[in-house]
Amino acid sequence: MAKVVVKNKKCCRFSILVFLLFLNLVFSGQLLGGESAVRFGLTPVILDNQRDFLERWQKFLEKHLERPVIFFQRRTYGEITEMLLQEQLDIAWVCGRPYVQHQQKLQLLAVPLYRGKPLYQSYLIALSDNTGIDSILDLKGKVFAYSDPDSNSGHLVPNVMLRREGKDPKTFFAKTFFTWSHRDVVSAVASGLAQGGAVDGYVWETLNLVHPELTQRTRILNRSQEFGFPPLVARPSLPKNELLLIQSALLQMNKDPNGIQLLQKLNLDGFVEGDDALFDGIRESLLFVTGY
């Protein structure tokens, strides 16, 4: 019996070592076949069948890149950004705010086209039947939902709005909380869990197409100025030739039948190279709030 226990312990240790080796290979992007995989980071998206979409997008990218692609999904922008900075990812779809904050360490890869422009807005929303609320000032002493502390549309924009009115965001609301996704901001307001919230306008509009029963329970109080759409960025040391190859695959999506279907699922028109100046509005907002 003792020999069996010892043997089982050895097998367990060996299995753990193999698993740890596999994880190391995955995070390094080096697969057993010797091919270097493209490690692609994502935060929660609004699709109902996310797994099916990612499998199709993975096949599309692998076909055009002739390399394996591995998706890494995390809950927050902070986690994805840190993985990029630690070079545990090659590329990621992030918010414009972390791109601006770490622009010296990240490479701009591509910017999505939404309604023909690489731009989007932040929406301030409230419960549809709460007629006593018409602006952010009417939400004083109420419960407010943010999406993510590193989000431009879901955190920075409403804070700028309040500060321009001479209000302190930390004390203005009775309570605030983070939902960690824009879709959940809409759900929180629609259910009455929060009296107001800040959400990516693209997400609200896309939800309005696929789940109007949810968005109809909310009301848009304000649409912000236009900002650069949340970009795709690359780790600092990604070689230029690899960046251009990945960029080309993304830019070709709206010219490929399968790519067009994927873009339709995302409610996007395509991707463009993008321009760093698109994010000047976020830079100005950060300067206004933080002073640097």
CATH C-level name of the largest domain: Alpha Beta
Pattern of helices and strands: HEHEHEHEEEEHHEHEHHEEEHHEH
Total E-strand runs: 13
In CATH, the architecture of the largest domain is 3-Layer(aba) Sandwich
The pLDDT mean sits at: 90
Tell me the overall shape: globular
Structural class: alpha/beta
- End-to-end C-alpha gap: 67 Å
Oligomer: single chain
Number of helices: 12
Low-confidence stretches: 14-34
Main beta-sheet strand count, sense and barrel state: 6 strands, mixed
Structural overview:
The protein is an alpha/beta fold. It folds into two domains: 35-118 and 229-282, 3-Layer(aba) Sandwich (D-Maltodextrin-Binding Protein, domain 2), CATH 3.40.190; 122-224, 3-Layer(aba) Sandwich (D-Maltodextrin-Binding Protein, domain 2), CATH 3.40.190. 45% of the residues lie in helices and 19% in strands. The chain has helices at residues 2-28, 50-65, 77-85, 96-101, 152-164, 169-172, 182-190, 201-210, 212-215, 240-251, 257-266, 280-290, and strands spanning 38-42, 69-73, 91-93, 107-113, 119-120, 122-127, 143-146, 175-178, 196-200, 218-223, 227-228, 232-234, 270-272. A six-stranded mixed sheet has the order 2-1-3-12-4-13, with helices on both faces. Strands 8-7-9-6-10 form a five-stranded mixed sheet. 37% of the residues are buried.
